[in-house]
Write the structure tokens for this entry.
Amino acid sequence: MSAPVLALVLLAALLHAGWNSLIKAGADKAVEMALMRVAGLALALPVLAVTGLPARAAWPWLCLSGAIHFAYYYLLAKTYERGQLSVVYPVMRGVAPVLVALLGWLWLGEEFSPWAAAGVAAIALGVLWLGLQGRPRTGGSAAPAALPWALLNALVIAAYTLADAQGVRASGNAVAYVMALALLEAPPFALWVAWHRRGDGPAVRATARQRWPWALGGAAASLASYGIALWAMTRAPVPLVAAARETSVLFAVLIGGWFLREPLRLRTWMAAVCVVAGLGLLRLAH
């Protein structure tokens, strides 16, 4: 993985942690997510008018990814209802690259050097240590109720990463692919939330009026983050991009500590050293 590609993937990691923190900060996680997806659709339409639609070969992957993303957004909202950003985010993002590496090897035939394998393992170890080490405090920073949701979402993340890696390579244009995905995923999730909250109309409208600027910013960060990641997958092996992107856990922990007032302990910094070491190993791989 070249230095410019790695730098852009790290930017994508920061953007990803940023929009996740906005979901966590919201009072109603599902409504926040729906607002962000609708805002993403509004941003995607003018971009698609310029780029055009992806190639026909990408559409089966787009449809598959849209269905997987519905599950992802649902599980993400449920996870943030039950656990702190600085704990459940590392669990979700830490398990995923291990699954991507294994499935990428089995399904896509991706090969990578022992250095790269060690880097993937070190990053996964660091983020899992960050999420799982230590006794949960009263109030549930790592409440047992949140961990099954986070682990299940890690599997979903691995699934859409592999699907989109195939789809973006078939699309001919990473930007068009991401924008088309926003077009497909927003209406089903927004309609589901509207139906699920049909008895809370005034509260939902009040949330929309108050939070729409944050939703717009989060949508822009989400689209940019995933667009960069998918573009990078056309320039480097999928497991390496997926593993480097998971450094977003460092940004999420810092955001959780500084802005959401979640506790930062010694294990946070020890796990961070492990993740940085993994990044160094990824750089040695090529």
